[in-house]
Write a structure and sequence with these properties.
two-stranded antiparallel ribbon; Nucleotidyltransferase, domain 5; 3 domains; Helix Hairpins; alpha/beta
């Protein structure tokens, strides 16, 4: 373990924790004594925390810094308990930071828990790391990620429904651009699914479609779908079994929609108690979009400037500089995709509902940019705006923003 032999600040004990599913690897080091004891594996239960506290007490030292790798959700229980027992001593590090530090120590291609702990010690010595999220921000982050998982599950469930409906009634559920699209979330789409389950793929009457619609559906719309259904090929031989499976999938899809509504209500309540609530004053940005971006931007003091925040989303263009050579490159995409999606969603909402951002969008498209390229360009301005609002806690004012934009010539 010669990797941790470098000098530490005087009498400071660094505790490196590499989390796992069953046990966490722990290493203690100090500037005066170097490695303190041997690295140990502690269980993730309360017993492990208690043993770690005894190790820290035995090590002594005027100050303790705990470096914990933020790996998915494995670190969350220990992070909360360590922050409670050692307030202000916990520092979190991303796995990418650990990987980079391990490469600096000469172990880029050799990975084990002890080397990861050594890398965490090295990062802690340099004053790196971020404080743990506590209270409302941690709860909001968990709710936002839970909703994102539900949205992905709903997307897959919708694709399965279209596939099963086409197997039961060939040609009924046409994709966009091939006739009228069957939107499953609309009353007509729900009525078509209900009739497919009830009649085993056989064409229903107009009256049956109207009776099974959960909302308003016109007679003309119902007649159009009934006519199209009659023009389809007949159902397969195992239509009853397919209809039964389709019914269970419809129930799961509807349950997902209900779960999404519940978690969105929870997000709105949590966001109201956080500084990110100010983002809901943006046109086209409700609680869900505001929370998705706020959980990654807060606390805003972590980002010295709007460009720093924009770079953390992975949308900032990469640059190559060497002597007098300067080459712009494509966006880095180094950050998690959920950060890019959150900022791009805010940019899209502003482009649709804000006068100033609508003008920007038209200007960018007039230059020959594709819609997705224009949205990336808008996201930079949206990031600057969000950074200012989170820092000043002032609501959005369309006229004030337009005056500032023309004054700066942007």
């Amino acid at each position: 373990m010669e990797l941790v032999s470098a000098a530490l600040p005087a009498k400071t004990v660094v505790v490196a924790v590499d989390p796992g599913k069953v046990s966490n690897r722990v290493l203690l080091a100090s500037g005066e004594r170097g490695l303190i004891g041997e690295p140990v594996s502690l269980p993730v239960q309360r017993e492990g925390i208690d043993r770690l506290c005894r190790l820290i007490e035995a090590a002594g030292g005027d100050q303790t810094v705990i470096a914990l790798e933020a790996t998915g959700s494995l670190h969350v229980p220990w992070a909360a308990e360590l922050e409670r027992r050692f307030p202000g001593s916990l520092r979190l590090f991303a796995p990418s930071e650990t990987h980079a530090a391990r490469a600096q120590l000469g172990s880029r291609r050799i990975k084990d828990d002890d080397r990861d702990c050594a890398a965490l010690v090295s990062l802690a010595r340099q004053g790196r790391g971020r404080p743990a999220r506590t209270g409302i921000l941690e709860a909001l982050l968990d709710a936002v990620r839970y909703r994102r998982r539900l949205i992905l599950q709903r997307k897959v469930a919708r694709q399965h429904l279209h596939h099963q409906l086409n197997s039961l009634c060939p040609g009924l559920s046409a994709p966009q651009g091939h006739g009228r699209k069957l939107a499953l979330e609309t009353p007509s789409g729900r009525a078509v699914l209900a009739c497919a389950v009830a009649f085993g793929g056989r064409p229903p009457s107009v009256r049956s479609l109207i009776a099974r619609a959960p909302g308003r559906i016109t007679s003309a719309n119902a007649a159009w779908w009934a006519k199209r259904w009659r023009g389809c090929l007949g159902p397969p031989a195992d239509a009853e079994l397919r209809a039964e499976r389709l019914g269970r999938d419809v129930a799961r899809w509807q349950a997902l929609a209900g779960d999404i509504e519940v978690v969105e209500a929870q997000i709105a309540v949590l966001l109201a108690d956080s500084p990110g609530q100010v983002l809901t004053t943006l046109p086209g940005v409700a609680a869900t979009r505001a929370a998705a971006f706020a959980v990654h931007a807060l606390p805003i003091e972590r980002f010295e400037s709007a460009e720093h925040l924009y770079s953390s989303t992975g949308l900032a263009p990469a640059r190559y500089e060497s002597a007098t050579i300067r080459k712009p490159r494509a966006i880095s995409r180094e950050a998690p995709g959920e950060r890019r999606d959150a900022l791009m969603s805010i940019a899209w909402g502003l482009a649709q509902h804000s006068v100033a951002f609508g003008e920007r969008d038209r200007e960018l498209r007039a230059r020959g940019m594709r819609p997705i390229e224009a949205r990336v360009g808008l996201s930079r301005h949206a990031c600057r705006l969000c950074h200012t609002m989170l820092r000043t806690q002032q609501p959005f004012d369309e006229k004030r923003y337009a005056r500032a934009r023309h004054r700066r010539g942007r």
